[in-house]
Write a structure and sequence with these properties.
Chain lengths: ~450, ~100
């Protein structure tokens, strides 16, 4: 599978044409919703004539269709935005374009990023790159599959509770969930503003780090973006011998044995590389999913209130009152999972239930953060599986929302605490990829990349 | 087991500006009930005197100059996004 270096120094036009051909060849996986062919070819010509240059000059990539990007619609895989054409682009796309990268298309997702399998897209599901009878994972499933199939060497996704890490694990690629606030959220369709982060998929740690470095940085248009801090470590060996804690709560019999075996082998190779690994307890971990499914729906209900069919987005036809216009536009514009989350969100925020649900969950979140902080006082990195299973079958979990949510059990806590994490491939179980989650203290992203890169070198 | 009535769902849908079909109300009654039952496990936790963690960045009072920034987007471009407009105004059904 060609990584970023393959595309550098070649004709940008050739790169883009190859990527477009590959996208069409793998159409049956439905990783992409549409191609941005016109703009991609124009930009390729500009790279080839020297008008655009940079660290990613001529390198093709794809973005999840909840990032605002020029040339075609930004749908968030919803009927609500099926014809929405943005006049501006997301800050992180602007940054990648300034370095010469070329966006060739928009990828499929669970509608409004609500889901864990990309089965909730209003435009049809995406199939797993390794086994097309299995789900892609989600919600950034299309981006993960596009990279795993080799259509492009990197792709952008969003991660609110595991939406980059989980599909990366299911398709055997690297997934990056940066520290909350490291990259600008401006120009990306908001889901849950207190945990949404912009990250990438790539084939190896080096590529993921380069893309992350370009995406990172403060943006005056995003008031919650952190001051610039991310700088890759020049020498991976400078991390020395790390103290690593394996989260024992995620290595019980609730996790598939094949997943546990691969994680245990990864731990063995960490020890061989001179790091110390011991099992640690995170008792609040088992409550993290319950907190998540109060806090995140509350934020979703607020963020999705803006979609009313008035100023932009789809409007129901032939309505006679404003209430009817709102109600019918929203009923048609949102998929079932979005409606579930909106109702839950407005329930937990409503007068009389606020203290019992929303405030209680935010207090529990503080207890979870305190537990992570206590562990990071002693350990440099924490480790766990990304998902309790490998990719499940298409349709297997669609009838039971709570069962679907359980696939996020190991990733949502990291999101609620704002921590950085990488999903790195760790071999297969029963022929399907398994990912290991490397978790760091806030702003320690560079250490995670150095560790992942050093372990890839060990694999060779 | 958390029970939520059909009327609760209808009231929530009204609060959420969602005009649901009867079938949707039936299935949401089951799903929302199940999800609320799942999250009730938080009641096992003692959170007395714990300050809620509404955010994780530690940032506070991020100021900017009080000047108009049109964000490189023109009024015409924004109006073009509206499903219906007339005379530089967005058009909706009669309110009064």
């Amino acid at each position: 599978m060609p990584s970023i270096s393959y595309y550098q120094g070649r004709s940008a036009l050739q790169n883009v044409q190859e990527a477009l051909q590959a996208a069409k060849k793998y159409d049956k996986y439905h990783a992409l919703l549409h191609l941005t062919e016109k703009r991609a070819l124009e930009r390729a010509a500009q790279v080839d004539n020297g008008a655009i240059s940079g660290r990613l000059a001529g390198v093709p990539f794809v973005v999840k269709d909840n990032y605002l990007a020029l040339d075609g619609a930004t749908t968030a895989a919803s009927r609500m935005l099926e014809d929405f054409e943005t006049p501006l682009q997301a800050t992180v796309i602007e940054r990648l374009e300034q370095e010469g990268a070329i966006c060739i298309g928009k990828t499929n997702l669970d509608s409004f990023a609500h889901g864990s399998s990309t089965e909730n897209s209003a435009f049809g599901l995406t199939k797993n790159a390794i086994d097309p009878t299995k789900v892609a994972g989600g919600s950034s499933g299309g981006s993960a599959v596009a990279v795993a199939l080799g259509i492009v060497p990197f792709a952008l996704g969003t991660d609110t509770g595991g939406s980059i890490r989980q599909p990366a694990s299911f398709n055997g690629v690297v997934g990056v969930k940066p520290t909350y606030g490291m990259s600008s959220r401006f120009g990306v369709v908001a889901m849950a503003s207190s945990t949404d982060v912009m990250g990438c998929f790539a084939l190896n740690g080096k590529d993921a780090e380069l893309v992350t470095e370009i995406m990172a940085g403060n943006d005056p248009k995003d008031m919650t973006s952190l001051p610039d801090y991310f700088k890759p470590l020049e020498d991976v060996s400078s991390i020395g011998s790390l103290k690593i804690g394996m989260i024992g709560d995620f290595m019980t019999e609730d996790t598939d044995s094949g997943v546990r075996e691969r994680v245990t082998e990864y731990v063995d190779s960490l020890k061989m590389a001179g790091h110390s690994v011991s099992t640690v307890k995170l008792p609040m971990a088992k409550y993290s999913l319950a907190m998540y499914y109060i806090i995140v729906p509350a934020e979703i209900a607020s963020n999705l209130a803006r979609y009313d069919g008035v100023r932009y987005g789809s409007r129901a036809k032939d309505t006679t009152t404003l209430d009817e216009l709102y109600g019918l536009s929203r009923d048609r514009g949102f998929v079932a999972e979005s409606k579930r989350r909106i109702l839950i969100g407005n329930y937990v925020l409503s007068s009389g239930y606020f203290d019992a649900y929303y405030q209680k969950a935010q207090q529990a979140r503080q207890l979870l953060i305190d537990e992570f902080d206590a562990l990071f006082a002693e350990f440099d990195v924490l480790l766990s599986p990304v998902v309790p299973t490998t990719a499940f079958g298409i349709g297997e979990n669609t009838d039971d929302p709570v069962k679907m949510y359980l696939s996020d059990a190991m990733t949502v806590g990291v999101s609620l605490a704002g921590l950085p994490a990488l999903s790195v491939p760790a071999g297969n179980a029963n022929g399907m990829p398994v990912g290991v989650q490397l978790i760091g203290q806030r702003k320690s992203d560079a250490v995670l990349f150095a560790l992942a890169k050093s372990m890839e070198a060990t694999d060779d | 087991m958390h029970t939520i009535s059909r009327d609760d769902i209808i009231k929530l849908a009204t609060l959420s500006s969602l005009k649901l079909t009867d079938e949707e109300i039936d299935s949401l009654q089951v799903d929302v009930g199940n999800i609320l039952s799942y999250v009730e496990q938080l009641n096992e936790l003692d959170t007395k005197d714990v300050t809620p963690a509404y955010q994780v960045t530690g940032l506070s009072n991020v100021f900017r100059k009080d000047v108009i920034n049109s964000g490189e987007v023109s009024r015409e471009q924004l109006l073009a996004l509206a499903p219906d407009s007339q005379d530089l105004q967005i058009k909706v059904p009669k309110v009064l």
